[in-house]
Amino acid sequence: MNARSWGPTAGPAGPLGTALADCATAGFSGVLHVIGAPGGTIYFAQGGVAAIETPWSPSAEVMLLRSGRIREPDWEAAYAAAAVARGHMRSELLSRSLIGAGELEAMLRSTLADAMFALAAGFVDTCRAEATTLEHVLALEPAADAAWLVAEARRRMQVLAAFPDPPLGARERVMAVPGALRAATMRGGGRDEILALADGRRTARDLAFALGHGLYTTLLTIARMRAEGLLAPAAQGAAEPDPRTYRQASPSADAGAVSALPRRHKERLPQPQRSGDPNSRPLPAVLRLLRPRAEGH
Questions:
Q1: How many degrees, rounded to 5, is the angle at CA 172 between CA 166 and CA 175?
Q2: What is the pLDDT averaged over residues 85-101?
């Protein structure tokens, strides 16, 4: 299969599900361009998914750097060495003992599952396959099974749909409920970081990139915090409406379902903060500075 396209009417599973199944069956190696919102690029290696890029889900690079697992100077040194030697970033990270082989594989698989979830949760208009050599900064070896990724995306959508509150979309803004921020109260589980940043202007996607967490993990934590009365959606009209919310998902919903798609401008991925930026301090050290003042102070 050198080149092929799938349109909005390509099968009951929608173009994304059909395209993934066809590429896996054909043992396809190349890129699958997903046109939609958010849209993205899926990299195939002999029928398996080796990498996914989409503006709604943080990449492995973002997660490793924002979480502090790898320091930015170490990443840049490894990247430069890999580029000069025309080698693989994976080999450089492992040879420099910046991360273990098992941890890196787990991180890449988690990143793939999160990116597939982001694609499945949005609109897919068309898909276009293009045979080419695999060129990606961090590709998973061996590649992941496409059917597993789709099933995992469907499962995650069902989990979010099971909460009593209507699920929020990736581009909906959230804010802390008045009184939720109390001095000397630490809740753990990532709640404090989200409370510190949930000012009504940041979306769930923004929070995921800022904290170096997956989109699904961020949405799941937000759903739990809404159930606990800590977070609420921002005021009506403050956010651009999400093209699709997870309330449409059900145990029988197909992750590749699509509908008509208006043309949108491609979003740009946020870039990691530079090490010289004074705002790039570890988040827990500045939580109190980010929190709004309590009443009476």
A1: 90
A2: 90
Two tokens at 113? 């599952």
pLDDT tens, residue by residue, 173-217? 999 888 766 644 556 677 888 988 999 999 999 999 999 999 999
End-to-end CA distance of the chain: 66
Residue with tokens 């967490």, as numbered in its chain: 213
What are the structure tokens assigned to 13, written together?
């599973």
Find out whether 182 and 288 touch, Cβ atoms under 8 Å: no
DSSP state for residue 164 in the 8-state scheme? S
- Phi first, then psi, for residue 245 (nearest 5°) are -110, 165
Structure tokens at 71: 């320091």
What residues pair up with 123 in beta bridges, in sequence order? 37
What gap in Å lies between CA 294 and CA 297, rounded to an integer?
A: 6
Question: Which tokens go with 29?
Answer: 């190696």
Residues 30-84: tens digit of each pLDDT: 999 999 989 999 999 999 999 999 999 999 999 999 888 999 999 999 999 998 8
What contacts 192, CB < 8 A, 6 or more positions away? 186, 284, 287
Cis ω for the linkage preceding 142 (within 30 of 0): yes
